[in-house]
Amino acid sequence: MMAPKRPEGAGAFLKPVESPAPKPPDPSALYAALDLGTNSCRMLIAQPKGNQFHVVDSFSKSVQLGSGLESTGRLSRGSMRRTIQALRICQQKLKRHKVQRMRLVATEACRRAKNSAEFIRQVRREAGIQLEIIETEEEARLAVISCAPLVSTKTEQLLVVDIGGGSTELVWIDLSKVPKLDRPRAIMRLHSGFQKTDSPFPAAKVVDWISVPLGVATLRDQFRDVEDDSARFALMSWFFEENLAEFAPYKDLPPSEGFQIVGTSGTVTTVAASHLGLRRYDRTKVDGLRMTSAQIDKVIRGYLDLGPKGRRMDPRIGQDRQALIMSGSAILQALLRVWPTDRLSVADRGLREGLLYAQMSRDGVLEDGPF
Fold first, then answer.
1. What is the spatial distance between Cα 191 and Cα 359, in angstroms, rounded to a whole number?
2. pLDDT tens track for 156-169
3. Disordered: where is this region (predicted)?
4. Sheet containing 157-163: which strands, arranged edge to edge?
5. N or C: which end of the chain has fewer CB within 10 A?
6. How far is it, in rounded angstroms, from Cα 208 to Cα 193?
7. HSE-up of 325 (CA within 13 Å, CB side)?
8. Which helix (H) or strand (E) holds 344?
9. For residue range 223-252, what is the model confidence (pLDDT) as tens digits?
10. In total, how many domains does the chain have?
């Protein structure tokens, strides 16, 4: 089991070197962001629009790239084949829309696999896509900036949690020195790094961050041999909490009134859809929804009551997600045991949105207004 990654001292980061954009891009120019994770391959193609963006095309498929990685340390032939098929579709979309500006990234499965360099070469050869494996700090940073529009102006302490397939990133941010109306914008300004900025504005301070190498797929694989559904759930939750021991920015100081957790992942959005009783998933109802610990707890208890068979039949969970919803719920429950809150904001957004915001902010094509 790999140890969680974190810096020597929080906030001690090197500033990434970025070359200046040669000339301002055409405002009608399209941007793309592709996120190849342990479980899924997702892409967005979007156009800047005010201080946000308008999605022109998207793609999402469960490719299970990390299937078997836990036991072999390698990406399997089958999972690489599935992934390359999905990436070919992405390449067709990029060509069709004539996208020039893009970032196509891979995360935990490719960081960990012994044969990832070989896989990246194969992807380039067979799908015509050049993937870039990003480090855990950048993954955490992109998840944080994607959630900027959901940050409340009342928030003084913010915890952003991104539950992935292979890892979970947690970032704790202090906004107490930032004027209330500037808080969402201060989160967006983290796109250039977690370090102390030279910004003339009061900055959001990253108190601590951690990348735990346990996501919905890797945590499930650790406890696959436990037969009993509820026993497996309890073990997964306590095991995840043990891995959080390294991350305790405010161990002795319970968060103040102005504490907000933003959760970004398929787990959190699925729990929200179940809570709302949606028959069909609807992003507009889920993204930005606030939930209390008690409401989340009630949904998770309902999942346990359903059992594996019932969860498979539940339209909100679906075939694809049912195998992973309990490991995700175990992570969510562990987090809420450590930091109970009545203000968990659900984010149907993540790495792809973060990649788009970062590219657009760097090129100066987003209007600088409130979200």
1. 9
2. 999 999 999 999 99
3. 1-26
4. 205-212, 168-174, 157-163, 259-264, 344-347, 290-291
5. N
6. 13
7. 29
8. strand 344-347
9. 999 999 999 999 999 999 999 988 877 665
10. 2
